[in-house]
Each structure stands twice: as structure tokens, then as C-alpha cells.
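Hi L., both proteins are below.
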Amino acid sequence: MSNLQKGLTSVIVGSILWGASGTVAELFFSESTVSTQWVVALRLLGAGILLLLWCLFTIPHQVKNLLRQPKQVLAVCLFGFLGVLPSQFTYFMAIRTGNAPTATILQFLSPLFILLYFTITKRELPRRIDSFCVFLAMFGTYLLVTKGQFNQLALSPEAFIWGILSGVSAALYTLLPRKLLQAFDAKLVTGLAMFVSGIALSPILISTDVPVLAPRNWGMLAFIVIGGTMFSYLFYIQSLQYIDASLTSMLSSFEPLTATILSVALLHTAFGLPEIIGALFILSTTFLQAWASHRELAKT
């Protein structure tokens, strides 16, 4: 298998696992009364421990190096509390109050908020392609929320707000660790950030009685933690070793595609033509941004 094939396979498998975990979470919430906070705490702590164990076996020297630098550890903690924890919590709340496809697609608005951040901090007007992406994202969101009807909402205001907050949190998740990732392996940074976030939420796990769940529900939680968090992330990171980051970001659109197909097929989630068009508009902004970045790099 060539490096290109390895990269394509890794990012697609990772994105599919991510998307599937959203649908599994939607099914889990529909069958149990377990709080979102408890699920997020279990996911972060469980996945964080698994990723750190992976790092201890594969890159133990980096683990020691990071732990010997208090400022870097503090930076990882800030990434965990301001990036990882809110992105996970808002995403699961968007699923719980709405559905997995819409939550996953609204999370893909994060490039819009990243663009807004750089526009403000650099005090530069956005490029024409950026303005066009903003238009596509806003119109796509309108179609998702209203089904194209001015006088109705297809999505509850609560689900819409959590979805938007999920996009904002995903942007912070992308922006915060940039300097850390220049010095340390992404698996280590994310694993430690998840672990400290899970520790912060551990009082929820301790104070809450272990829920009485059917074996299939425990299986869902195991998949959310292991398949939908640890392995999905490892596959995604592995793809960056073989293919360009812009191609990886474009192929990550398999995540909302998977969530939509599984939710419609298994959970009978209503997803009509207006929502499909809206989703395509939002996802197209990722492709356009990647294409524009590739053109700029080609000119330098």
C-alpha cells in the first residue's frame, strides 16, 4: 500500500469512526437518562488514559520531556479546559437536544469562527473567497435550521445554540494547541488535555451512582470512548504522516456524512432536501478554504 493510500484510508476510517460515535451517542441518549456531563466525563477520562498509555509505550521520552516543563503542562491544561472540554460537552449537548447529523454539521462551522478570529486579530479585511465562504455557511445554516421555510424552525432553539457553541468550541480546539503541536506529538498533547479535563469532571463520576444499563448500552459507551475517540483520533493523526493537512481536512467531511447516513438509516432521523443542500453548503467551505490555502502555498 502506497503512502497516499495509507493516508486516505486512515483519514476516512478515522472520520467514519467519529461520525458513527455521534449516531451511537444519539441512540444512547434516547435509551437512557444518564446525564451528558457523566458521559463526557467518562469519555474524556477514559480516552485520555488510553492515549497516555499509548504514548508511554510509543514515545516515553516525549512524555518525560513535557512533564518536566511546568509552563508547557499549564498550556496543555488550558487547552483541555478551554478547548477539549467545551468542544466535547457542547457537541454532546447538541446531539442530545437535536440529532447527530445536525450537531456534526454545525460543528463544521468552526472554520468560520477561525476566520473571524484572524480577521479581528490581524485587522485585515477577509479575502473574497472568505466572504463567499461566510455566505455559504450562513445560508447553509439557515436551511438546516428552517428547512427553507421562513415561518418555522426544524431545529429547536436549544439544539441550534448548542450546535453553534460546538462550532465555536471546535475553533478554540484548533487554535489553542498550535504552539504545543510544534514541540510535542499531537497524541500526547490531546491525551493529556483529555486526561486533565476528565480529572476536572471526575467529581461527577464519583458523586453519581453507576447507572444501571443494558449490556448494549455499555457497549455503546465503550465504542464512544474507544472507537469514537481514541482510535478515531489515532487514525486521523496517522493520516497527517502521509498526506497534506488540507486533503485531510477535506476528507474529514466523511464524519458528518457517516453521522447522517447512520442516523437516517438506523434512527429514522428526518433529513430532507433543504437540510442536505444546507449541509453541502457548510461542508463546501472546508473544501474552498483548503483549495485557497493550497493555491497560496503554490505561489510562494
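That was the first. Here is the second:
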Amino acid sequence: MADTVSLELTTASHQPRAADVVIVGGGVIGVSIAWHLMESGVRNIVVVERSDLGSGSSAKPLGGVRANFSDPSNIALGQRSLQKFSVFPEKFGVDIGFRRVGYLFLGRTEEACESMAEAVQLQNDMGVRSSMVTPEEAGQLNPLVHVQALLGASYSPDDGYARPSQVVHGYSKSAAQGGVTFLDRTQVLSIDTTAGAVSAVTTSRGEIRTPTVICCAGAWSAGIGEMAGVELPVTPVRRLIGFSAEGPTPLPTIPFTLDLQTTLYFHNSRDGLLLGISHDQEPCFCREFSYEWMEEFRAAARICAPTLSKTEILGGWAGLYENTPDRNALIGEAADVSGFFYATGFSGHGFLQAPAVGELVTDMYHGRQSFMDPSPFSIDRFTQNSSVRRETNII
């Protein structure tokens, strides 16, 4: 039941010998950047994907889209992406299942409510339509929530969810029509540099001479960076999502609901629910689904949403978070390797930020001012005694 579709995209049978840009990773970030670069006038673009387009982490998320963050840079990316999601069907002719059901963050301690109130104020200052709500109002928004367990909640009605696979489909199909070359089932083996600058990429099909590589390899990005001599602090962590059986009566439409303390989350899916919890995992590349997290989920549900503690789970899937030390993305160009760009480490919110990231990286490539300052996402923040921000509105 993971979100996958046939992309109906014919990939290249022959690898070009040269390219202006080689994008490593054919997930939603990579195809968004490819499309935005193509639209900006760059014509010789190659996207290298070791499996099928959109088959990595882009096939596995819950699909939440929002601007409800605590960090101003994340808010800006969320706002821009929401604008792009809202016109996506008209622009690309693809129904992405975008539904503005809202986001509801539950607050069960004074500390959590204070943190959410600060985030809401920042969001409001930046034009996001969010607010703090009472426990009773939270219960009206989501009847599954245990009102007595709450001290408050934050609600952002313009947020919601969409289908990642359909977004990958829209971007990749349009990019291919515009001349972008997609090489699926192709593995990057090495990245060559000359005099401190990118000069070539060698794949399982051969060499591509290029002055620019953009790493969008998600949880696998550290290895790609190492090939070019760039340290990308990205750690893979397995996350699991379950889906429930269809109930005897239709479920109400509810916001995407998250409890920051227990890290439980759930929202509608067809006639059931998608649900999960940020189950503690050791870093790994395992994407095998299992049920050991259910005990922890049911314990959290008994606190936040008691009816879910007895919900039958029919199955689910596992995907990978690409975590950074501060749970914020890495977006920029390497200081010591000219032409090596990166857009990775999104720590669970890559899909929802992908449209804006495509625009931001394209502007960086052209050396022009963008809709926001990308510098807070530079890897330099970990080595230059910069103030490290930690996003709090994530699980």
C-alpha cells in the first residue's frame, strides 16, 4: 500500500558522454530540481537513479504538506511549496490528491504548549494562518483525540497531505518532455574532481563529463558526498507506517494529527487510517516492515486517542528518514569542491519541501537571489560555530 505508481516514463537507453548538470537521485527532490533547472533554460541535464524513479524514500512517506514549523527557514520552504502544490494539477495535468485537512499538533504539557505558541506566533508573523486552540476545540477538529489528556493544541487549516508518487510523476514527465535525460537502474560509482572542482561522474554505464553534480540521494547521501570529498552528515533511520482496516462506519475527515510528546501520528487514508510513531531505531538502511513498534504505538494511543489502541493493523511499509544532527535540511554548494551541490538530509520533511527546494537550488545554480536565503541550510553551520537551530515541530 506504499504510495507507488507507474511513471509511464521511458528512460534513456544510452548514457550521454557529457552533461551540464548530473543529479544523483531520482526521488521527489531530484526530479523537482531537474524540472526547475529545465524550466530555467538548462538543457543538458541527467538524472541518475540506481533503482526506479521515486522508489526510495519518496515512495514511503505519509505525504504531509505544511508550513507549521518552528524554524523560519522551514516555514518559508513550507509556504512556497504549499503554493506550488495548490496549482500542481493545473500546471502538470496530474491529480496529486492534495487535501487541505489541516495539521493538529497536540500539547499535553505546559512546555509543549508554550513551544507551540511561540511557533504559531512566528508562523503568523510570516503569513501562515495557524492558531492555538483549546482542548475542546481540538476534540471538535478530531473526535478521536482524548480531550482530557490535552492542555492545548495548535492548528493550521491550510496544511494537509498529497500523494508523493504523483508529484514525482508530474515533475519527471514534464522534465523528460523538456529534454532531461533520466537514467534509472544506474548506479553512481565515483565522482572525479580536478583542481578542486567537479569534472566527471562515473556510473555503472560509463563516464559523464560534467562541471556540476547535485546530490539528492536522501539517506544514501553520505556515500555520494564521500566520493567527491564532501562530508554530508546524513544518517539513515528506519521509520514504519501502518494502515488500519476499514471501520463498520465511515471515519470522519480529520486533520493530520501528531502528539509531540509520544510522537504518535495519524490521518485518513481511503476508508481507514495511516498511523505510526517515531519508534526508536538504530541507524540502518533496512526497509523491511515489521510490527515491533505496535506495542509502543498502542501505549501512546491509550493516552492520546484511546480508540486507536485497539485498531486492527492490516499491514504497512518501512522507509528511511535522512536525519541530520539538528533535523534540518542540507542545501547548498560545497565550499571546497566547486560544482558539488547538495539537497538532502530533510529529516522527514523532504516531500513537503520539494517544490520550493527545486526553485531554491535552481537559483543557487544560476547565482541569483531566490525567494529566501539558503545559507541557514549550509553544511558549514556544523563547522563554523554557527548557531545550530533545531526544528521542534517534527517527530
